[in-house]
Design a protein that fits this description.
The protein has 146 residues and is mainly alpha-helical. It is elongated and about 55 Å long.
């Protein structure tokens, strides 16, 4: 899973929100300044995260965005999902019809790596990357490593 620029912006914005010391909504202007993202582009990105159930938003002078659930309950996969390719994984070398049935030259070696990246995103919480969780980065709740 490679992150496109919108998914990267979304992840940076959600991490900024998660790092705030209070649960008060965070204004778009503050997030834009922190992430170095254009305000209008960021606003559309944040609203998409709202539709996906990652964020909540409020209008008005005290409005802004906040996480819809505790950061420990939001996976990185949930944050980037609204901005991922419609057909799931992208081919490493850009083929549009790359799959197990019609593999590109990199497919057999890249597929296991891509699977590990997807697992990382699925099992890593926003709290972990925001530095507000006690779990180690990338640890799946069901991991039993001996």
């Amino acid at each position: 899973m490679w992150l496109n620029s919108t998914a990267q912006t979304a992840l940076n914005a959600v991490l900024h929100i998660a790092r705030q010391p209070t649960d008060a909504p965070v204004r778009v202007d503050e997030i834009a300044a922190s992430t170095d993202a254009p305000r209008n582009y960021l606003s559309k990105t944040l609203h998409a995260l709202g539709k996906a159930g990652v964020l909540r938003s409020w209008r008005g002078p005290r409005g802004g965005f906040q996480l819809a659930r505790p950061a420990e309950e939001v996976s990185l996969a949930q944050v980037v999902a609204p901005f991922a390719p419609a057909n799931g994984r992208r081919c490493l070398i850009g083929n549009t019809r790359c799959s197990d049935l019609t593999p590109c030259a990199a497919h057999r070696s890249w597929s296991p790596v891509a699977g590990e990246v997807e697992r990382y995103f699925a099992h890593t919480s926003v709290a972990t990357l925001a530095g507000t969780a006690s779990e180690p980065v990338g640890a799946a709740p069901s991991d039993a490593r001996h």
